[in-house]
Here is the input.
Amino acid sequence: MLKIYNTLSRQKETFLPLEEGKVGIYVCGLTVQNYSHIGHIRSAVAYDVIRRYLEYRGYDVTYVQNFTDINEKIVERAREEGLTAEELAEKYTQAYLEDIEQLNVKRASHYVKATENIDAIIGMIETLLEKGYAYEVNGNVYFSVENYEDYGKLSGRSLEDMQAGARIDIVEEKKNPLDFALWKKAPEGEKDWESPWGRGWPGWHIECSAMSMKYLGKSFDIHGGGADLIFPHHENEIAQSEACSGHKPFAKYWVHNGPVNLKGEKMSKSVGNFYTTRELLEKYRGVEVRYYLLTKHYRSPIDFSLEELEEAGTSLKRITNTINNLRRLLNTKVDIENKKAGEGEKLPDLAAIKDEFLQAMDDDFNTARAIGVVHDFVTAVNRLVNAQDFVLTESNYSFIKEADAIFTEILGILGLDVREADTQTAGEGLHEPLIELLLEVREMARQKKDWAVADRIRDGLNELGIIVRDTPQGVIWEKERG
RNA sequence: GGCGGCAUAGCCAAGUGGUAAGGCAGAGGACUGCAAAUCCUUUAUUCCCCGGUUCGAAUCCGGGUGCCGCCUCCA
Here is the structure.
């Protein structure tokens, strides 16, 4: 039975969709103002796994993610880059989509943009005005937090709490400092839209309410986003959505992923201490970054470090090696000894392993634990397959076949595509034939047991960044990683 | 100041009141001419500190200490 931690209740709840067999998920994406960084990617991967697991469990999932493509920051950044707001948003939207593709994140059912849903946004604001939850002043429309009785239920604070420690700019025209803009006048000369209150832009929070309801209905199952969005963004979304529709709950399960910090500091665009996804992907494969993120539970904060990312790569390699090894065995159709299922042959319990994996995933998508199970599985398989007295009996063969199928199944849930890593090719400036020639000479030396010459060649190549390895199948060389 | 979260081996990390998963690094071993790569084995009498509840607590309660997030249109 799947349990999900719901920020609204602050506890794990059994997952029951509003409509049998179907799940609607809305995830707050990002403001497309720059290249994505590891924090954005963490969010993307977290919800991708949630989505994949729900699909694995047989649900028909509608996954909606937004791009905030108009606001002050977009305009500001567009000016810096000498682009229009539309061009800038388009540029970084495409960049983001490329980034997440490398992380094997599935495409959303719908990617929605504020600028493409202005009508829905205006319609919603009109309803809020009619129902008395909003007021207009000088071309700006504000939501009145005092008129919505449940304000604060998500973040667990009362209006009094918030006003007490207020660090909010006092805006004279607001009735309450916590009131937030639904519609705002745009700065002179910037892209804006006609509305009943004059030309302007939507406020930040309203787009998510309008678009989620448009695509998923007045109530839907899961609303996700970064924990930093709990207040004020999601609090405001709930207030305006429930006030507008009269339906509760707006979203049944509120899911929040933890932040990514760097050297103990919060990593964000404003601090400027982040790695962009592109920078990381120059040095690390998408699958490694994804694996690294999944070794921690999605709600825990991550203190990002390249050392850990590196270690994750090593850890992942262990899994990859085992799978490649299984596939190699499956391809050796020869020599399946007739020996029937050996007496005393004890094979790992595959069903139990899979079950354990699913239990971990059922427990609020505990990928860290699930990956632990994968490693247990790896050890169990290696122990069998690498045993000195291992022979490919019929029963072993079918075991391997099934083990391979289970690996594919559970790694698919995690979205870890561990197919053979790219084979590194020769270093620049070094001619392959030359290397081959050197290795040929080395082989001759080895035949004569002239270890000094053989080792000199190996060490020399090593200094040039070429790693030489002797294997039972012959010598292998590859370019040093990184 | 207000709200919330976290403290588990050198590092990362999971953990449903019943006697500490997993990974990385380290150590030992197999393999190798030696290596490399790979594989196997091994590494916490104890879970920040002090009390309490309980037959029994890393897990629950109270207090303390330390760190972090949010309260700023950052995922």
